Amino acid sequence: MISVVVPAKNEAGRISTVLQNLGTLPIDHIIVIANGSKDSTMREILQLRLPKLQIMYFHECLGIDVPRAVGAKAALSLGSDVVLFVDGDMVGTFNENLIELVDGIQLKHLDVALTNCYPSPPRHIERYNPTFQWRLNLNKALGLDKKVNLSTTAHGPHAVSRRLLETIPTKEIAIPPVVMALARTHKLKIDVATTIPHYRLGSSIKNQIHTNKIIDTIVGDCLEAIAVFHQQPRTRQWQNTTYLGYHQDRRFDLLDSFLNENVRS
To answer: Contact at 8 Å (CB) between 190 and 108?
Structure first.
């Protein structure tokens, strides 16, 4: 069974395209995690009437990446063997790549199937977005840099296996780079399964404040993942700077309540 998890917050004008694209795939469930939207996102979702659609609505915003953990738990409960993650603003046409991600799990027996979003990375990545350098730092720490280069669960569609979801704590999926660290710790298989250049994702363009916070989020996530892999206390600090970004807005309290409620039921 194949499920796609789609986090969606304030994606009016985009979410319909994303879900219509996904609706043409040979998959079993599309799990939308609608959270904290103040626009017409929910109305657009409901108007589509897609037969594969499963909607999980949260009035409060869960924060970045937390919806992935919610969706992963739901997909596991539905009996999914493959879980795809596609952001609710990615209006690009890349269904054939999503099939390659699924094939990476089903045919190549991967546990984490990644997308290469930078097939031609800049020569001096340290001069670019700091996330490039920290993605590479993490992948080097994991012994994966020669295999996956800059690819990461923090960027682009990716897929995971049921084995991974049954191996690592669901809560950890809310910090995507930590998923890679724990997968490596448990000797699960990680590799690139497809290539989608970043511009083809069709992600929405945000302002510079958002961009800076995303950079800090991903750098902090990579630092935390490196610490986890080395079995050290978690830290988001490097050279006297603490990289929080949107991490402080992640509602782990709401995630814990959701996971605990599912355990009781």
So the answer is: no
Tell me the pLDDT tens digit for each residue of 152-200: 999 999 999 999 999 999 999 999 999 999 999 999 999 999 999 999 9
- Is pTM beyond 0.90? Reply is yes
Q: How many CB atoms lie within 10 A of CB 202?
A: 18
List the domains of the chain with CATH numbers: 2-264 (3.90.550.10)
Cα dihedral: 253, 44, 81, 62 (round 10):
-10
DSSP state of 175: S
> Based on C-alpha coordinates, what's the Rg of the chain?
17
Cα 50 to Cα 47: distance, rounded to the nearest angstrom: 9
DSSP-H helix ranges across the chain = 15-23, 41-48, 66-77, 95-106, 130-141, 145-148, 162-167, 176-185, 208-229, 252-264
| DSSP structure string for 215-234 | HHHHHHHHHHHHHHHTT---
Give the integer Cα–Cα distance in Å for 217 and 69: 17
